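hey
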């Protein structure tokens, strides 16, 4: 009996087991990290930067910026339509901003910031923004769908959000765009 269970579990494991499930996107912007922090911690401003096909609804709470800012968000990615509370849980200016979606179906997204050394004195300060959403892997019947549909769509949403973030920062501060 135990041999049969072992064979069934191996058969169900498949090629998706052990693959990373976190979703990561990265972009370099020609803006100081502290300025990037300010935008990432402002949920009313971020609501305008996240692509409409990624977010069904976004209702900002009474506090809209900084640690403790809240919103109710409905994510629409693939077949996932999930409404979750969102709290800006940690802000370390110039280093990172954490968004926490508490609860059994929640997750954390960290926007990590790294200041890059300028190659010349005339080059603008640049910041690498890396967004990581930390997800637990789905159960076996959904693993293939997650890795082939959900994860790429989520990565696209994060990448397009970072593009919009850069455009917003550049238009408000006049910084040069870094490709």
């Amino acid at each position: 009996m135990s041999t049969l269970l072992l064979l069934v579990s191996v058969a169900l494991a498949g090629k998706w087991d052990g693959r990373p499930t976190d979703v990561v996107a990265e972009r370099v912007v020609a803006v100081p990290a502290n300025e990037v922090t300010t935008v990432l911690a402002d949920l009313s401003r971020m609501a305008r930067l996240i692509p409409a096909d990624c977010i069904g609804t976004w209702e900002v709470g009474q506090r809209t910026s900084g640690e403790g800012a809240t919103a109710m968000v409905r994510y629409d990615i693939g077949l996932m339509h999930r409404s979750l509370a969102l709290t800006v849980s940690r802000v370390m200016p110039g280093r990172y901003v954490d968004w926490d979606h508490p609860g059994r179906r929640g997750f954390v997204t960290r926007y990590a910031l790294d200041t890059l050394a300028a190659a010349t004195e005339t080059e603008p300060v640049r910041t690498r923004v890396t967004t990581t959403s930390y997800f637990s892997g789905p159960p076996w019947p959904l693993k293939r769908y997650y890795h082939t549909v959900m994860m790429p769509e989520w990565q696209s949403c994060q990448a397009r959000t970072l593009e919009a973030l850069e455009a917003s920062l550049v238009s408000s501060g006049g910084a040069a765009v870094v490709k």
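The chain has one domain: 16-173. The beta strands are 23-29, 55-60, 70-77, 80-92, 96-101, 107-116, 126-134.
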